[in-house]
Amino acid sequence: MLRVDLEPARGMAFEAQMASMTLPGLQLMEASASPMSLTRGGEYLADGNDDVILAINRSGSAVVSSRGQQQSLRPHEAVLLSGAEAASFQRTTLGRSFTLRMPRAILESAVPGLDDRLMQPIAGDRDALKLLGCYTGWIFSAGASIDSHLLNLSVRHVQDLLMLAIGPSADFAETARTRGLRAARLKLAKSYIVAHSDRRDVSIASVAASLNVTPRYVQRLFEAAGTTFSEFLIGQRLARAYRLLRDPNYSRAAISTIAYDVGFGDLSYFNRRFRRLYGFTPRDVRGDKG
């Protein structure tokens, strides 16, 4: 964690909640707080930390000061800072923020004139910034369940999205766009499907609408990953059906009821696909003898 001074606004009750996650080459922190100010300067700068910091104002109003400049951040806007320079973050209303820290060396090779990007506001409607917020939120919620290999890949995707949000060099832009934006969108598309797989009206169009892209784009995301939208959706439904069939709490539920509850509209099709995937019938998995 960066060393800072925290000063609550005078005459107001102070409340705050913070959560952080430290990964190789990346630190994430989300916070909600009443009006207050965070200041880094003086002796704190002697710690030698020159990480690059992206501060995203998720809600409420905030004012960021550094390098003799001041930027007011509206909801969803962001600004880039350096841990090696004095700075302050003043929350003027109750609100939420999200902060990413990354070693300067990682960004310098891909973002020319990095110092010129400091204290330049980043619009909240920028696609890379919106995806960055969604993707890091997913990492926060699922971090403990992600294996180390996937977690390292996720860190790289976050780094790519951050570079795209602040503007990489021309020769790196396509690499970052391909590796970061597409990976993040595929992860969010899969998360949407997992959350809505029990709905029979879930479609490639509804997934595309949730990501603000075209259905064809979503189709290409899954094709590049070696599968299709339909196969991934069916796989999620079958996996949920398998879990329910093994769950003692559902031992009295009819197999047809489970099939319909997980999103299938045809029992015969459900049985065929289930046996093709698992090599057993749903009744075999449950252990029915009759």
Automatic annotation (TrEMBL):
Q: Which Pfam families match?
A: AraC_binding_2, HTH_18
- Tell me the InterPro entries matching this sequence: AraC-bd_2, AraC_XylS_family_regulators, Homeodomain-like_sf, HTH_AraC, PAS, Tscrpt_reg_AraC-type_HTH
Sorted keywords for this record are: DNA-binding, Transcription, Transcription regulation
Give start and end of each PAS domain. Answer: 265-290
Gene Ontology molecular function, alphabetical: DNA-binding transcription factor activity; sequence-specific DNA binding
Q: Has UniProt tagged this entry with the keyword DNA-binding?
A: yes
Transmembrane region(s)? none
Which part of the chain is the HTH araC/xylS-type domain?
187-288
PANTHER family assigned to the protein according to its UniProt record, in alphabetical order: ARAC SUBFAMILY (PTHR46796:SF6), HTH-TYPE TRANSCRIPTIONAL ACTIVATOR RHAS-RELATED (PTHR46796)
User: How is this protein named in the record?
Assistant: Transcriptional regulator, AraC family
